Amino acid sequence: MMRVVKIGGRTQADPRLINTLREVWNLAPGDLCVVHGGGDEVSAMQSALGREPVFIGGRRLTSEEDLELLRMVLSGAVNKRVVNAMVAAGLPAVGLSGEDGGLIGAELIDAAALGFAGQPVAIKADLLCTLLNAGYLPVISPVGYNAGSENGGPLNVNGDDAAAAIAAALEADELILIADVEGVLDGEGELVSSLSTEAAREMAANGIAVGGMAAKLESAEAALIAGVASVRICDLAGLSDRERGTFITQSQSVVL
Q1: For the domain that residue 40 is a member of, what is the CATH number?
Q2: Which residue among 10, 12, 48, 123 is the one 20 to 30 A from 73 at the CA level?
Q3: Quick one: DSSP state of residue 185?
Q4: Are β-strands 154-157 and 93-98 bridged in parallel, bridged antiparallel, or unpaired?
Q5: Cβ 219 vs Cβ 167: under 8 Å
Q6: What is the end-to-end Cα distance of the chain in Å, rounded?
Q7: How many domains, in total, are found in the chain?
Q8: DSSP letter, residue 190
Q9: Which residues contact 178 (CB under 8 A, 6 or more apart)?
Q10: What does the pLDDT average to over 196-200?
Q11: Which contiguous run of DSSP H or E holds residue 196?
């Protein structure tokens, strides 16, 4: 059962993370792929350099000057820290960025509004399958390769978008988007156990799901449309408990 898991920066600080991933891997070696974020660290570095972090619809406005910073933080510090902790725990983790081998080919979303933020348009699934078949656990930084430029270069791909595209390319059985809450919460702060894509769009439009959660819901819908069998938004405990969190389902009107 192939599972693609996206872990954000706050989840990475949870001392239970590495042991939880080890348990999941040991149950089914070769059936797990990890994508990580690290937005809080990027924002902290931007602020330290006198740049104000700006988000639109949960996606970061990225200047050309921010690209090297993203490489340094996400593909450098964060990726290697996570991989090192996994290896120390006995996991066969291999760190990659979306630039390596053109793993995540991306194109600009809207240069005027978001700058050098990209959306995935092509995933080198064969690269990931080569690692998985050899017994390695891919751990991926979502900094993408600019497939729309003849000179290449990096693009800032939202981690949830990257995970959704990778899950589709690997024909994954499940995409799990780890949040710092148990799942999607309604207007009263109660957990929603199942949510259609149509209802998810309404929650975003009504301001109930905002920022990072709104972006997660968009990524979840994209994964379902691309053929991923199951998408779930949950907290870290949901990695071990397959019934925990919010299951995102396709609205009947979009089922292919």
Answers
A1: 3.40.1160.10
A2: 123
A3: B
A4: unpaired
A5: no
A6: 23
A7: 1
A8: P
A9: 5, 6, 7, 8, 11, 234, 235, 236, 238, 239
A10: 94
A11: strand 194-196
- 129 is in which domain, residue-wise? 3-254
Backbone angles phi, psi at 8, to 5 degrees: -85, 175
**Token representation of residue 177:** 């988007």
168 CB-side CA count, 13 A: 20
Q: Which of 39-48, 99-108, 212-221 has the highest mean pLDDT?
A: 99-108
d(CA 37, CA 181): 16
The pLDDT value recorded for residue 252 is 59
| Distance separating alpha carbons of residues 12 and 236, to the nearest angstrom | 10
Residues whose CB is less than 8 angstroms from the CB of residue 72 and which lie 6 or more positions away in sequence, other chains included: 45
Q: Do residues 7 and 17 make contact, with C-beta atoms less than 8 angstroms apart?
A: yes
DSSP state of 77: I
Q: How far is Cα of residue 164 from the mean position of the Cα atoms in its chain?
A: 7
Q: What is the 3-state secondary structure (H, E, C) of 205-234?
A: HCCCCCHHHHHHHHHHHHHHHCCCCEEEEE
Global pTM exceeds 0.90: yes
Opening angle at CA 138, ends 236 and 215, nearest 5 = 50
Q: At what angle are helices 17-27 and 79-88 packed, to 10 degrees?
A: 60
Q: Give the pLDDT confidence score for residue 255 in this predicted structure.
A: 40
